[in-house]
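Please review the protein record below. Let me know how this chain folds according to its tokens.
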Amino acid sequence: MDAKRHRLIVVSNRLPLVFKRDAEGEWHAESGSGGLVSALVPVLRNRGGTWIGWPGTSEADGELGQALSEASDEAGYMLRPVSLTAEDVRDFYLGFSNEVVWPLFHDLPSLCNFEPAYWRAYQSVNRKYAQAIVDNQVRDTDFIWVHDYHLMNVALELRLLKCMARTGFFLHIPFPPPDLFLKMPWCRQIIGALLAFDLVGFQTLRDRRNFVQCVRALDSQVEFEGRGQMITARVGTRVVRIGAFPISIDFKDYARRAAAPEVAEKVADLRRLLPKCNLVLGIDRLDYTKGIPHRLRAFQSLMQRHPELRERISLIQVVVPSRVDIPSYNDLKLNIEQLVARINGEFQRPGGWVPVWYVYGSLTSLELLAYYRAADIALITPLKDGMNLVAKEYCACSVESDCALILSQFAGAASQLGEGALLVNPFDIEGVADAIQQAECMDVGERRARMRRMRHSIRRSDIYDWVNTFMKAAFASDLSAFPLPEHPLAIVDGEVPAL
């Protein structure tokens, strides 16, 4: 079989480049961020392929098409846009994706808005993505890798368009148990749509188990076989592979960049602002799933119950703006700011120590790396998270290995980092406060032992291993049909070599 005949087509809500107009009205591209971009861009550059997604604007003109063409030439793979109207963005993205799926899949059904118009928009937009794939002259030999909760209907729409190419889906957020999932009026349709893929991947075994339980609750005809990382479901005459593929980061890249001299200089600047004070770092996108108010109350409890730690420890809470068009997010921002003011008003003394340093805004790469390296303790306590790559980034940047990680037991990363992190229940305010006190008093030897275990685990299972593992599952019967990049990792004799 000619391997060159097999193309990789990546499909996600947004393209890896965001297109915006500059001051002169001309289009320019800004690089996207996140683990997905870091993982898949090197694969596409290595062997070619196509990335399909929304370019970040509802405008469409010839100049945008030219900008996309130029960006494709520079990237080394094709960028194909999906055109969304302002109404699509409102009802599909802000509506169904972020007012139905996002809260429900994060165990917060009380925040769901089961508006029927949102479901119709979700179906319509997923149909647009499927049509964009078919319009890209997709062949039956291509592999279509669809990403995340925005696009769960794409494989079903592709089948309706008579597209028979192999498809894979990866869910980056958690999958809920049946008692939550079945609250969605369209739960049966979503399960049927996911089973239209050839391979369905989840972050953790818990998420996969929840999915299997939901399928069994809704369709008794589906039969499951196997155990371990990969199982199969027989759906009529089709076999669907279902697995857990915990996503990771580019460990070597983070560690290398964190050790750069300019980062060390930035760390020194931060330390001059907070002399003789240990730093606890919280860094999150503005979202109610991140547990930021709970974390602030835990730090307040720590100050109240352990006065000896006052003036010895400060919390730096970075909040990155997100979904500012949704009113509940603005309410959350106000709540956070009020809590910060209350804590500082209770404990701060004029001209001296500041209990909570609050930073609202996006960080440059240099600033992010400096915050990671400067922090003695990372406090990462989401109420629910598919993985939480911030925890892994913090460990990769801890080049001295003399710091501590406090991690929510409800983050997907807890299953991998549990032997080194202090795991907490983010709803247990005093329990989180006690964990901060434990981390603050932990001797350097124990800190280093714990951090080295976590760094070794992330180094061994990095983002390239994630891509290779997913592709091996997708092409288990014919791995040679889809060769993987030789750099920075390669498949050798069917195995991923250790780093």
The chain has 18 helices and 17 strands. The chain has two domains: 3-248+465-481, 251-460.
